[in-house]
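Hi R.,

Here's the input for the glutamic acid complex you asked about:
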Amino acid sequence: MAGDYNPYNEMLKVLEDAAKKLGLKENDYITLKYPEKELKVAIPVTMDDGSIKVFEGYRVQHSSVRGPYKGGIRYHQNVDVDEVKALAALMSLKCAVVNIPYGGGKGGVTVDPTKLSKGEIERLTRSMVTQFFPIIGPNKDIPAPDVNTNAEIMGWFVDTYSTLKGELSPGVVTGKPIALGGSLGRAEATGRGIMFIAREVAKKKGLTLKGARVAVQGAGNVGGVAAKLIHREGGIVVALSDVSGGIFKEDGLNIEEIVTFLTAERGRLLKDYNEPGLKRISNEDVLTQDVDILIPAALENQITEKNADKIKAKIIVEGANGPTTSAADAILDKKGIILSPDILTNAGGVVVSYFEWVQNLQNFYWSEAKVNESLEEIMVNAFNSVWATAEKYNVSMRVAAYMVSVERIVTAAKMKGLAN
Ligand code: GLU
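And here is the predicted structure with glutamic acid in place:
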Protein backbone atom coordinates (compact mmCIF):
# COMPACT_ATOMS: atom_id res chain seq x y z
CA MET A 1 0.00 0.00 0.00
CA ALA A 2 1.28 3.44 -0.93
CA GLY A 3 2.45 6.01 1.67
CA ASP A 4 1.00 6.10 5.16
CA TYR A 5 -2.35 4.75 4.10
CA ASN A 6 -3.29 1.69 6.10
CA PRO A 7 -6.75 0.35 5.29
CA TYR A 8 -7.03 -1.49 8.61
CA ASN A 9 -6.41 1.70 10.59
CA GLU A 10 -9.01 3.48 8.46
CA MET A 11 -11.56 0.87 9.50
CA LEU A 12 -10.53 1.14 13.17
CA LYS A 13 -11.06 4.93 13.17
CA VAL A 14 -14.69 4.59 12.08
CA LEU A 15 -15.23 1.67 14.45
CA GLU A 16 -14.07 3.77 17.44
CA ASP A 17 -16.24 6.64 16.33
CA ALA A 18 -19.33 4.46 15.97
CA ALA A 19 -18.72 2.68 19.28
CA LYS A 20 -18.42 6.02 21.07
CA LYS A 21 -21.65 7.31 19.54
CA LEU A 22 -23.35 4.10 20.70
CA GLY A 23 -22.05 4.75 24.20
CA LEU A 24 -20.18 1.44 24.28
CA LYS A 25 -17.32 0.73 26.66
CA GLU A 26 -14.11 -0.54 25.08
CA ASN A 27 -14.74 -3.92 26.74
CA ASP A 28 -17.86 -4.28 24.59
CA TYR A 29 -16.12 -4.07 21.24
CA ILE A 30 -12.40 -4.61 21.81
CA THR A 31 -12.54 -8.08 20.22
CA LEU A 32 -13.72 -6.51 16.95
CA LYS A 33 -10.40 -4.70 16.69
CA TYR A 34 -8.55 -8.00 16.32
CA PRO A 35 -9.21 -10.51 13.52
CA GLU A 36 -9.87 -13.92 15.06
CA LYS A 37 -7.45 -15.74 12.72
CA GLU A 38 -4.98 -14.85 9.97
CA LEU A 39 -3.56 -17.49 7.65
CA LYS A 40 -0.71 -16.83 5.24
CA VAL A 41 0.09 -19.51 2.69
CA ALA A 42 2.60 -20.19 -0.08
CA ILE A 43 0.88 -21.27 -3.29
CA PRO A 44 3.11 -23.18 -5.71
CA VAL A 45 2.00 -23.15 -9.34
CA THR A 46 3.48 -24.95 -12.35
CA MET A 47 3.63 -22.31 -15.07
CA ASP A 48 3.06 -23.01 -18.76
CA ASP A 49 6.83 -23.03 -19.42
CA GLY A 50 7.39 -25.76 -16.81
CA SER A 51 8.88 -23.47 -14.14
CA ILE A 52 7.39 -23.35 -10.66
CA LYS A 53 6.36 -20.01 -9.19
CA VAL A 54 5.24 -19.49 -5.62
CA PHE A 55 2.55 -16.89 -4.92
CA GLU A 56 1.57 -15.62 -1.47
CA GLY A 57 -2.01 -15.85 -0.31
CA TYR A 58 -3.97 -14.82 2.77
CA ARG A 59 -7.24 -15.73 4.40
CA VAL A 60 -8.23 -13.53 7.31
CA GLN A 61 -11.15 -14.62 9.47
CA HIS A 62 -12.23 -11.50 11.26
CA SER A 63 -15.37 -12.40 13.20
CA SER A 64 -17.55 -15.47 13.65
CA VAL A 65 -19.79 -13.95 16.30
CA ARG A 66 -22.92 -13.88 14.08
CA GLY A 67 -22.19 -16.89 11.87
CA PRO A 68 -19.55 -18.56 9.70
CA TYR A 69 -16.88 -16.36 8.13
CA LYS A 70 -17.97 -15.00 4.74
CA GLY A 71 -16.17 -12.99 2.11
CA GLY A 72 -14.50 -13.00 -1.27
CA ILE A 73 -11.00 -13.79 -2.50
CA ARG A 74 -9.20 -11.31 -4.73
CA TYR A 75 -6.30 -11.74 -7.12
CA HIS A 76 -4.28 -8.53 -7.37
CA GLN A 77 -0.64 -7.52 -7.44
CA ASN A 78 -1.09 -5.11 -4.48
CA VAL A 79 -2.71 -7.59 -2.08
CA ASP A 80 -1.09 -7.54 1.36
CA VAL A 81 -2.12 -8.59 4.82
CA ASP A 82 -3.36 -5.16 5.97
CA GLU A 83 -5.63 -4.92 2.97
CA VAL A 84 -7.06 -8.40 3.53
CA LYS A 85 -7.50 -7.71 7.27
CA ALA A 86 -9.41 -4.51 6.52
CA LEU A 87 -11.58 -6.17 3.90
CA ALA A 88 -12.32 -9.06 6.29
CA ALA A 89 -13.48 -6.62 8.97
CA LEU A 90 -15.63 -4.77 6.42
CA MET A 91 -17.30 -8.12 5.63
CA SER A 92 -18.25 -8.66 9.32
CA LEU A 93 -19.75 -5.18 9.37
CA LYS A 94 -21.42 -5.60 5.96
CA CYS A 95 -23.15 -8.87 6.89
CA ALA A 96 -24.36 -7.29 10.12
CA VAL A 97 -25.70 -4.12 8.50
CA VAL A 98 -27.89 -6.15 6.13
CA ASN A 99 -28.62 -8.59 8.94
CA ILE A 100 -27.60 -11.88 7.32
CA PRO A 101 -26.28 -14.61 9.63
CA TYR A 102 -22.57 -14.45 8.83
CA GLY A 103 -19.37 -13.18 10.33
CA GLY A 104 -16.68 -11.79 8.06
CA GLY A 105 -13.56 -12.99 6.30
CA LYS A 106 -11.55 -12.20 3.20
CA GLY A 107 -8.84 -13.74 1.10
CA GLY A 108 -6.31 -12.51 -1.38
CA VAL A 109 -3.44 -13.70 -3.52
CA THR A 110 -0.63 -11.33 -4.50
CA VAL A 111 -0.65 -11.88 -8.24
CA ASP A 112 -1.34 -9.91 -11.40
CA PRO A 113 -3.75 -12.29 -13.14
CA THR A 114 -3.50 -10.39 -16.44
CA LYS A 115 0.03 -11.82 -16.71
CA LEU A 116 -1.18 -15.42 -16.30
CA SER A 117 -2.78 -17.74 -18.85
CA LYS A 118 -6.17 -19.26 -18.10
CA GLY A 119 -4.51 -22.60 -17.33
CA GLU A 120 -2.11 -20.93 -14.89
CA ILE A 121 -5.02 -19.20 -13.13
CA GLU A 122 -6.82 -22.53 -12.83
CA ARG A 123 -3.75 -24.24 -11.32
CA LEU A 124 -3.20 -21.25 -8.99
CA THR A 125 -6.82 -21.53 -7.81
CA ARG A 126 -6.66 -25.29 -7.21
CA SER A 127 -3.34 -24.94 -5.35
CA MET A 128 -4.81 -22.13 -3.22
CA VAL A 129 -7.87 -24.20 -2.30
CA THR A 130 -5.55 -27.01 -1.18
CA GLN A 131 -3.76 -24.57 1.12
CA PHE A 132 -6.98 -23.08 2.50
CA PHE A 133 -8.73 -26.46 2.79
CA PRO A 134 -8.31 -27.01 6.55
CA ILE A 135 -9.93 -23.70 7.48
CA ILE A 136 -12.82 -23.39 5.00
CA GLY A 137 -16.12 -25.26 4.65
CA PRO A 138 -19.87 -24.67 4.19
CA ASN A 139 -20.34 -24.19 7.95
CA LYS A 140 -16.94 -22.61 8.67
CA ASP A 141 -15.81 -20.11 6.10
CA ILE A 142 -17.44 -19.53 2.72
CA PRO A 143 -15.42 -17.62 0.10
CA ALA A 144 -16.79 -15.90 -3.03
CA PRO A 145 -15.56 -13.80 -5.96
CA ASP A 146 -13.96 -10.38 -5.47
CA VAL A 147 -11.60 -8.23 -7.58
CA ASN A 148 -10.34 -10.28 -10.58
CA THR A 149 -12.10 -13.50 -9.53
CA ASN A 150 -15.33 -14.78 -11.07
CA ALA A 151 -17.81 -17.66 -11.40
CA GLU A 152 -15.41 -19.77 -13.48
CA ILE A 153 -12.78 -19.58 -10.73
CA MET A 154 -15.45 -20.48 -8.14
CA GLY A 155 -16.24 -23.55 -10.29
CA TRP A 156 -12.61 -24.76 -10.00
CA PHE A 157 -12.80 -23.88 -6.30
CA VAL A 158 -15.82 -26.07 -5.58
CA ASP A 159 -14.38 -28.92 -7.65
CA THR A 160 -11.06 -28.96 -5.78
CA TYR A 161 -12.70 -28.61 -2.37
CA SER A 162 -15.22 -31.38 -3.12
CA THR A 163 -12.44 -33.71 -4.33
CA LEU A 164 -10.39 -33.17 -1.17
CA LYS A 165 -13.46 -33.53 1.05
CA GLY A 166 -14.72 -36.62 -0.78
CA GLU A 167 -18.23 -35.25 -1.21
CA LEU A 168 -19.87 -32.66 -3.46
CA SER A 169 -19.95 -29.47 -1.34
CA PRO A 170 -21.50 -26.65 -3.35
CA GLY A 171 -22.08 -24.60 -0.17
CA VAL A 172 -18.32 -24.07 0.39
CA VAL A 173 -18.23 -21.12 -1.97
CA THR A 174 -20.74 -18.72 -3.54
CA GLY A 175 -20.78 -16.92 -6.86
CA LYS A 176 -20.55 -20.28 -8.65
CA PRO A 177 -21.68 -20.99 -12.22
CA ILE A 178 -25.44 -21.72 -12.30
CA ALA A 179 -24.75 -25.29 -13.51
CA LEU A 180 -22.76 -25.97 -10.30
CA GLY A 181 -25.35 -24.67 -7.86
CA GLY A 182 -24.90 -20.95 -8.40
CA SER A 183 -27.88 -18.66 -7.84
CA LEU A 184 -29.76 -16.86 -10.53
CA GLY A 185 -29.17 -13.14 -10.04
CA ARG A 186 -25.84 -13.54 -8.17
CA ALA A 187 -23.64 -12.27 -11.00
CA GLU A 188 -25.47 -8.94 -11.14
CA ALA A 189 -26.32 -8.71 -7.44
CA THR A 190 -23.67 -6.22 -6.32
CA GLY A 191 -24.48 -3.85 -9.17
CA ARG A 192 -28.22 -4.27 -8.61
CA GLY A 193 -27.83 -3.50 -4.90
CA ILE A 194 -25.88 -0.34 -5.76
CA MET A 195 -28.67 0.72 -8.11
CA PHE A 196 -31.26 0.28 -5.31
CA ILE A 197 -29.16 2.28 -2.84
CA ALA A 198 -28.45 5.04 -5.38
CA ARG A 199 -32.22 5.24 -6.01
CA GLU A 200 -33.01 5.49 -2.28
CA VAL A 201 -30.36 8.13 -1.56
CA ALA A 202 -31.45 10.11 -4.62
CA LYS A 203 -35.05 10.07 -3.35
CA LYS A 204 -33.92 11.64 -0.08
CA LYS A 205 -32.24 14.40 -2.08
CA GLY A 206 -35.36 15.00 -4.19
CA LEU A 207 -33.78 13.35 -7.25
CA THR A 208 -34.65 10.32 -9.37
CA LEU A 209 -32.33 7.97 -11.22
CA LYS A 210 -34.18 8.99 -14.36
CA GLY A 211 -32.24 11.91 -15.77
CA ALA A 212 -29.50 11.78 -13.11
CA ARG A 213 -25.95 12.33 -14.40
CA VAL A 214 -23.67 9.57 -13.19
CA ALA A 215 -19.92 8.83 -13.19
CA VAL A 216 -18.61 5.34 -12.47
CA GLN A 217 -15.02 4.41 -11.66
CA GLY A 218 -14.59 0.73 -12.52
CA ALA A 219 -16.26 -1.18 -15.35
CA GLY A 220 -16.12 -4.74 -14.03
CA ASN A 221 -18.72 -6.89 -12.36
CA VAL A 222 -19.51 -4.10 -9.90
CA GLY A 223 -19.11 -0.80 -11.80
CA GLY A 224 -20.13 -2.15 -15.20
CA VAL A 225 -23.31 -3.76 -13.91
CA ALA A 226 -24.24 -0.77 -11.71
CA ALA A 227 -23.76 1.54 -14.72
CA LYS A 228 -25.90 -0.73 -16.91
CA LEU A 229 -28.77 -1.03 -14.41
CA ILE A 230 -28.79 2.70 -13.60
CA HIS A 231 -28.76 3.42 -17.33
CA ARG A 232 -31.81 1.13 -17.68
CA GLU A 233 -33.57 3.22 -15.01
CA GLY A 234 -33.02 6.30 -17.17
CA GLY A 235 -29.74 7.51 -15.63
CA ILE A 236 -27.25 9.25 -17.91
CA VAL A 237 -23.82 7.70 -17.41
CA VAL A 238 -21.43 10.37 -18.66
CA ALA A 239 -18.12 8.94 -17.40
CA LEU A 240 -16.72 5.44 -16.92
CA SER A 241 -13.23 4.04 -16.38
CA ASP A 242 -11.21 0.86 -15.97
CA VAL A 243 -7.48 0.15 -15.44
CA SER A 244 -6.76 1.41 -18.97
CA GLY A 245 -8.27 4.90 -18.36
CA GLY A 246 -11.56 6.74 -18.56
CA ILE A 247 -14.09 7.78 -21.18
CA PHE A 248 -16.55 10.68 -21.14
CA LYS A 249 -19.55 11.73 -23.22
CA GLU A 250 -21.59 14.81 -22.36
CA ASP A 251 -24.99 13.38 -23.40
CA GLY A 252 -24.35 9.91 -21.98
CA LEU A 253 -22.33 6.85 -22.98
CA ASN A 254 -23.87 3.86 -24.72
CA ILE A 255 -23.54 1.66 -21.65
CA GLU A 256 -25.22 -1.46 -23.05
CA GLU A 257 -22.81 -1.51 -25.95
CA ILE A 258 -19.79 -0.85 -23.70
CA VAL A 259 -20.65 -3.67 -21.30
CA THR A 260 -21.26 -6.09 -24.19
CA PHE A 261 -17.89 -5.06 -25.68
CA LEU A 262 -15.98 -5.48 -22.39
CA THR A 263 -17.46 -8.85 -21.46
CA ALA A 264 -17.15 -10.44 -24.94
CA GLU A 265 -13.69 -11.86 -24.15
CA ARG A 266 -11.13 -11.96 -21.36
CA GLY A 267 -8.77 -8.97 -21.23
CA ARG A 268 -10.96 -6.47 -23.15
CA LEU A 269 -10.34 -2.87 -21.99
CA LEU A 270 -12.04 0.51 -22.38
CA LYS A 271 -9.03 1.95 -24.23
CA ASP A 272 -10.04 -0.25 -27.19
CA TYR A 273 -13.67 0.89 -27.18
CA ASN A 274 -14.90 3.82 -29.24
CA GLU A 275 -18.15 5.55 -30.12
CA PRO A 276 -18.90 8.91 -31.78
CA GLY A 277 -18.48 11.91 -29.46
CA LEU A 278 -16.42 9.99 -26.86
CA LYS A 279 -13.60 11.82 -25.08
CA ARG A 280 -10.68 10.08 -23.30
CA ILE A 281 -10.07 11.20 -19.73
CA SER A 282 -7.91 9.87 -16.91
CA ASN A 283 -9.13 7.46 -14.28
CA GLU A 284 -8.84 10.21 -11.64
CA ASP A 285 -10.82 12.67 -13.79
CA VAL A 286 -13.80 10.33 -13.60
CA LEU A 287 -14.06 11.17 -9.90
CA THR A 288 -14.26 14.94 -10.38
CA GLN A 289 -16.87 15.22 -13.16
CA ASP A 290 -19.88 17.49 -12.78
CA VAL A 291 -22.45 14.79 -11.97
CA ASP A 292 -25.29 14.08 -9.55
CA ILE A 293 -24.07 10.63 -8.53
CA LEU A 294 -20.51 9.33 -8.32
CA ILE A 295 -19.86 5.60 -7.96
CA PRO A 296 -16.29 4.61 -7.08
CA ALA A 297 -16.39 0.90 -7.93
CA ALA A 298 -12.75 -0.07 -8.34
CA LEU A 299 -10.24 -0.27 -5.48
CA GLU A 300 -9.65 1.32 -2.09
CA ASN A 301 -7.93 4.67 -1.40
CA GLN A 302 -9.29 6.54 -4.43
CA ILE A 303 -11.02 9.53 -2.82
CA THR A 304 -8.42 11.05 -0.53
CA GLU A 305 -7.63 14.44 1.00
CA LYS A 306 -5.87 15.23 -2.30
CA ASN A 307 -8.97 15.13 -4.52
CA ALA A 308 -11.98 15.23 -2.15
CA ASP A 309 -12.26 19.00 -2.46
CA LYS A 310 -12.58 18.75 -6.26
CA ILE A 311 -15.53 16.37 -6.17
CA LYS A 312 -18.67 17.93 -7.64
CA ALA A 313 -21.14 15.05 -7.20
CA LYS A 314 -24.09 15.57 -4.84
CA ILE A 315 -24.17 11.90 -3.90
CA ILE A 316 -21.44 9.27 -3.64
CA VAL A 317 -22.37 5.59 -3.46
CA GLU A 318 -19.41 3.34 -2.73
CA GLY A 319 -19.40 0.30 -5.00
CA ALA A 320 -15.82 -0.60 -4.04
CA ASN A 321 -14.70 -1.56 -0.57
CA GLY A 322 -12.83 1.28 1.15
CA PRO A 323 -12.57 3.75 -1.76
CA THR A 324 -12.71 6.82 0.53
CA THR A 325 -10.20 7.65 3.27
CA SER A 326 -11.33 9.04 6.62
CA ALA A 327 -9.59 12.36 5.84
CA ALA A 328 -11.63 12.59 2.62
CA ASP A 329 -14.83 11.67 4.50
CA ALA A 330 -14.41 14.78 6.66
CA ILE A 331 -13.94 17.02 3.60
CA LEU A 332 -16.96 15.56 1.78
CA ASP A 333 -19.07 15.94 4.91
CA LYS A 334 -18.20 19.65 5.11
CA LYS A 335 -19.12 20.09 1.46
CA GLY A 336 -22.55 18.59 2.20
CA ILE A 337 -22.03 15.60 -0.09
CA ILE A 338 -24.03 12.56 0.99
CA LEU A 339 -21.95 9.39 0.95
CA SER A 340 -23.51 5.96 1.18
CA PRO A 341 -20.77 3.69 2.55
CA ASP A 342 -19.39 0.46 1.09
CA ILE A 343 -20.69 -1.85 3.82
CA LEU A 344 -24.25 -0.85 2.95
CA THR A 345 -24.01 0.08 -0.73
CA ASN A 346 -22.19 -2.95 -2.11
CA ALA A 347 -23.77 -5.53 0.20
CA GLY A 348 -26.00 -6.86 -2.60
CA GLY A 349 -23.30 -9.33 -3.60
CA VAL A 350 -23.05 -11.01 -0.23
CA VAL A 351 -26.83 -10.88 0.24
CA VAL A 352 -27.35 -12.98 -2.88
CA SER A 353 -24.36 -15.13 -1.82
CA TYR A 354 -26.42 -15.84 1.27
CA PHE A 355 -29.41 -16.80 -0.89
CA GLU A 356 -27.12 -19.05 -2.96
CA TRP A 357 -25.80 -20.78 0.16
CA VAL A 358 -29.32 -21.26 1.55
CA GLN A 359 -30.37 -22.81 -1.79
CA ASN A 360 -27.32 -25.13 -1.72
CA LEU A 361 -28.00 -26.26 1.84
CA GLN A 362 -31.68 -26.90 1.06
CA ASN A 363 -31.20 -28.21 -2.48
CA PHE A 364 -34.14 -26.05 -3.44
CA TYR A 365 -33.66 -23.39 -6.09
CA TRP A 366 -35.33 -19.99 -6.48
CA SER A 367 -36.50 -18.05 -9.54
CA GLU A 368 -34.53 -14.96 -10.52
CA ALA A 369 -37.58 -12.82 -9.72
CA LYS A 370 -37.64 -14.17 -6.16
CA VAL A 371 -33.90 -13.48 -5.75
CA ASN A 372 -34.19 -9.91 -7.03
CA GLU A 373 -37.28 -9.12 -4.95
CA SER A 374 -35.71 -10.50 -1.77
CA LEU A 375 -32.53 -8.54 -2.50
CA GLU A 376 -34.47 -5.32 -2.93
CA GLU A 377 -36.34 -5.85 0.32
CA ILE A 378 -33.14 -6.42 2.30
CA MET A 379 -31.28 -3.50 0.71
CA VAL A 380 -34.13 -1.03 1.22
CA ASN A 381 -34.65 -2.13 4.83
CA ALA A 382 -30.93 -1.79 5.56
CA PHE A 383 -30.87 1.62 3.90
CA ASN A 384 -33.83 2.76 6.03
CA SER A 385 -32.18 1.63 9.29
CA VAL A 386 -28.93 3.39 8.38
CA TRP A 387 -30.73 6.56 7.31
CA ALA A 388 -32.82 6.63 10.49
CA THR A 389 -29.69 6.12 12.63
CA ALA A 390 -27.86 8.91 10.78
CA GLU A 391 -30.77 11.28 11.45
CA LYS A 392 -31.26 10.23 15.06
CA TYR A 393 -27.60 10.66 16.04
CA ASN A 394 -26.76 13.39 13.53
CA VAL A 395 -23.87 11.39 12.07
CA SER A 396 -22.71 10.54 8.55
CA MET A 397 -24.18 7.51 6.79
CA ARG A 398 -20.82 5.74 7.23
CA VAL A 399 -20.81 6.15 11.00
CA ALA A 400 -24.51 5.25 11.09
CA ALA A 401 -23.91 2.03 9.11
CA TYR A 402 -21.09 1.07 11.49
CA MET A 403 -23.38 1.86 14.45
CA VAL A 404 -26.11 -0.45 13.13
CA SER A 405 -23.65 -3.29 12.55
CA VAL A 406 -21.51 -2.87 15.66
CA GLU A 407 -24.69 -2.88 17.74
CA ARG A 408 -25.77 -6.18 16.22
CA ILE A 409 -22.36 -7.82 16.61
CA VAL A 410 -21.92 -6.60 20.19
CA THR A 411 -25.41 -7.77 21.15
CA ALA A 412 -24.65 -11.25 19.78
CA ALA A 413 -21.24 -11.27 21.51
CA LYS A 414 -22.84 -10.32 24.83
CA MET A 415 -25.30 -13.16 24.56
CA LYS A 416 -22.40 -15.52 24.06
CA GLY A 417 -20.70 -14.05 27.12
CA LEU A 418 -17.87 -12.64 24.98
CA ALA A 419 -18.37 -9.04 26.05
CA ASN A 420 -19.59 -7.45 29.25
N1 GLU B 1 -16.55 -9.82 -2.62
C1 GLU B 1 -17.87 -9.35 -2.36
C2 GLU B 1 -17.84 -8.30 -1.26
O1 GLU B 1 -16.85 -7.66 -1.04
C3 GLU B 1 -18.86 -10.47 -2.09
C4 GLU B 1 -18.55 -11.34 -0.94
C5 GLU B 1 -19.44 -12.57 -0.81
O2 GLU B 1 -20.35 -12.72 -1.60
O3 GLU B 1 -19.16 -13.35 0.10
O4 GLU B 1 -18.82 -8.02 -0.63
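One thing worth noting: The pocket of glutamic acid is lined by residues 70-72, 94, 144, 146, 174, 321, 346, 349-350, 353 (CB under 6 Å).

Cheers,
M.
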